[in-house]
Amino acid sequence: MRTVGKRVERRGAKEAVAGKTIYSDDIKMENVVHLKVVRSTHPHALIKNIDTSKAKKINGVIRVFTSKDIEGTNRYGIINKDQEILVERKVRYVGDPVALVAAENESVAAEAANAVRVEYEDIPPVFTIKEAKNSDTEPVHEKGNLLFTRDIIKGDIDKGFDGADIVVEHTYTTSMIAHGYLETEAGIGFLDEKGTIVIRVSTQNPHYDQRDVAAALGLNTYQVRIIQAATGAAFGGKLDISVQGLICLAVQHLKRPAKLRYSLEETMLSACKRHAMVIHYKTGAKKDGKITAVDVKFILDTGAYASYGLAVLSRAAVHALGPYEVENVKIHGEVYYTNNIWAGAMRGFGVPQVSFAHEGQMDSLSKALGIDPFEIRMINALKEGSVTVTGQILNASVGIKETLQKIKAAKKNRENALIAREKKPDLHKKYGWGIASFWYGIGNTGMSNPSTARVEADKEGRITLFTGAAEIGQGSDTVLTQIAAEALQISYESLNLVRGDTGLTTNAGATSASRQTYISGNAAKLAAEDLIKKFSEEAAVQLDVSPEKIIYKQGEFKGGQKSTNIRELSKRLYKKGQIPIGEGVFDPPITMLDIETGQGVPYATYTFGTYYAEVEVDTGTGEVSVNHVIAAIDAGRAVNPSNVEGQIIGGVAMGIGYALMEEYKPGETTSFTNYLYPTSMDVPPVEVIIVEDHEPTGPYGAKGVGEPALIPTAPAIISGINQAINVKIVDLPAKLERVMKEIQG
Amino acid sequence: MILPEFDFVTFDTLKETLNLLNRHGDESKLIAGGTDLMIKLKSGEATPKYIVNLSSCEGLNYLKDNNGKISIGPIVTHTELINSSLLNNFAPVLSAAAGVIGSPQIRNQGTIGGNICNASPSADTVPALMVLNSRVKIVSHDEERWASLKDFFLSPHHTILKGNELIAEIEMEKLPEGTLFSFQRVSRRKSMDIAQMSVAVALVMDENKEHVLEARISPGSVTPTPVRIHKAEKILEGEILTDNIIESAAEEVSRRAIDMTDTRWIPEYKKPAIKGLVIRAIKDAMGQRGQMQ
Amino acid sequence: MKKIKINFILNDKKQEMEIPPNISLLDLLRNHLGLTGAKKVCESGECGACTVLINGKAVNSCMVLAPQVNGKRIQTIEGMSSGSSLHPLQKAFVDKGAVQCGFCTPGMLMSLKALYDEKTKVGREEIKRAISGNLCRCTGYQQIIEAADIAFKGRAKSDFTGI
Description:
The structure holds three protein chains of three kinds. By secondary structure, chain A is of the alpha+beta class. Chain A contains 19 helices and 28 strands.
């Protein structure tokens, strides 16, 4: 390999270190209008009246928009279109947008937003699942508070439990979590010379943005152009429409450039969060450690709007079993609307939650049966030829056992450190270690999610990759360029990239579900191969040989004794009025999940892994420190090892926060002052082990890593705490108070 | 960031500064580091007519040995406290406390005067200053008075400072060489966090470093205003410290801290945790005996 | 509200301006001076994305009132490289994969530069502490620390002549 597998320089890194990367709020435009959203302060209420008269009188206010100004459907949503650009009839959570102020500057916009008076007629709100289930008052949405259910049934659960020697049952709970991206939602829009509304925005899916914004505002898609601006991270929080629709509305009516940036407090208040979950988990196993039955019931609170609720539900259901082969499984999941802040996609999509449960169960089994935690996982782990919980046969690239073995071996190097720390004289300190394994399906669950790509050569033979895939810091710009360059057999540095612009690229699907390397990578590879094929055809003409005789190598096309190259061929084609273009489409081969049994092929490939964490608990104060982490992930193939390591270490840091300190409390959490996530002092040394069990259907064997990187961290840490102080923590986060409560007994 | 309107004034001399405060003290706010004031301006909690800049004012930035006491000017930054060899030698509990505040950026900007005047119950320098028997010099256009640090605080975020006054000096004891110090803190993460609770400990030892001659303990973030727990101090004084004695004293701190405050103010967590923290602090202080000389 | 005249040095160049006093240094840089390298995130001193150097010390520019920079020497990310030559810290970031989304990067580099200018030899713990006021949600900090470590270790051999 020339490029794939190499630590090539990240695209955009040089600009970033010079402070030259232009994010949405850095873009300056003349005559720009400043926007500010007016948000509901009531959790569930009819809007009786919106009085904008006072606001409009303020000097510098240009317009105050309400839903009356919206000419389209005023509906958007990534799955269910149940959300409005500006609420018309009823607000459903504190933060729901009801009006939009457009002003000459930021401070006038803020002043005017405060001067808008909204009259509400309250409807009884529901804030818990219990309330959502049992309430006889007006539901959050017309069809009722139960949004969806998902069932997976495999084998015979009763038989399975009958055959079990022991049964372990626990209820696990997790909290709402904030994404914590540093760049808040931001964008800027303007009218170009043709009257197209162009919006530069921080987003994970520009092509989806274009469609939903256009429909919501009554425009045709060609009238809206979305260009992904450099995006300061997202983790799933920038998949839904945020500022795009509001900016479009302003530009559409005012015919001036308009910008909107959420303050951090605004993001905390009104942007989606990770679903909180309650998971009832019952596991039956034989004395020898083989699991015979698993029964899981879990509930999600998706808050005021559905967003990705359905997808999180489905993915959580599929993954709830863990990376194990079990004959008898019954999984039932429900997702409810409430008047809490809406929950949506966040790194892991339900799997960080269910993996906390499934690994907690493995630990309980391990303890109850006296079987080593590595061993109990090895006994049950999936392998090539295994049948998954949805009846899918895994044909290849099932690296879970290898990750377990690698962690076990790496742990041996820690023996001295583990012994040394026990010797430190401190009554209060208790030490433990834990492991956790996981699996993660790459791509959207049980649905078509294609990616398209294009490569084009100019008349000098310089090639550009066009992809709609959004780069959000996870490295897709770099990796897709590597894959395409590899397939084109040209240098990484020589391949240009145009990305994330609905005016120039085609849809690659969202940057989510850890799908871009695998799916857009395949599309890019196919596009490159298509271009080589087209060049080969022209080479055959130029060299006057039959096309099968053409051999391509690193830019050169040989036909018998003669040869030509990309540059020459490009010149020739341009002279003929033809532009050398290669196109590629890839859609993972899957089947939808059966509505009753959940059986099907939800993903074409899965990433597997095992993490190990060493923890230290101060039993005097309840403080937990993570002292060392070893992370092993089967990524299929690391297209760029630096990128993979970076994602894994970043995932570990996020997982430390998830395990120990992060908890979003609606109404209480307002900013980074009270939403804490790990600093440099909180993250210990992380050893990364990349396992490469090649995925035959992946580009050069690659799968996906973005979300897997996070998943097993918290379960491994909790496992360590449990060992250290001999407890079983079943609620996340294991914050000071919780740990102290466990210590006190 | 949208800030209210105000006039920004800077004087080179304390006299001119106090003059302005005399005329407009009640509509003024002082700024040195600014890390607390900026938050209040942003939230609208503070809407002063004047913001009086102290950072160029002469005579407020010093850290010196002053006849057996240590005197510090109010605009000395936390970073300067951390790096001071005078403090590291004779009052390391204060440099340790300054060292856990916020972040490097906050420590470079924030000042000891600001930390005291903001009077947050979780102000980190305060417990350290309490075990050093600190007092502050309060000056105004007309007068100059001293107040013990304990008397300086009225309630959370309220001090005895009147609108036309400012702190011109913080004076503390220089404890005998060989005194053992510790500052410990619990927070939810290891940087950029306020204290869930903290404690400063000073142990004056006998020649052999076996008996505690004098003990000083001040918990932070667990009472509305700063205190010393004399009952706990007495448990340690005159003793060779064993685990039992240490535990006794720690329990007393926890008990007294709760007695002094409405229990609603201290969640169940803090009761055992204060005890654990105090034990840690005393042991940490005792553990330094081997490292001295 | 009276405007204030301020004189200061910005990235080695003298600046003289008349400004309204009620703006932060961050807004002064971003809105009045066109320097968007320092990022706006929390505006409460909690994340470090707006870090710049004042008289060589790292501060959160969102927490500095613009008039306070009078008479001071300010350095921002825009002044870190020398012409087209990257500072050793910047180069190490690029080489070691220390950049992911890039939003924390300018602030991180500023905090590290303060350390770099103050001390010659530092260990990893000190590097870690120097960036303990800069949040990053992407990288987990390790590659940033490794990059800084390499830059520090390589400085004897470096012939960089930037500020």
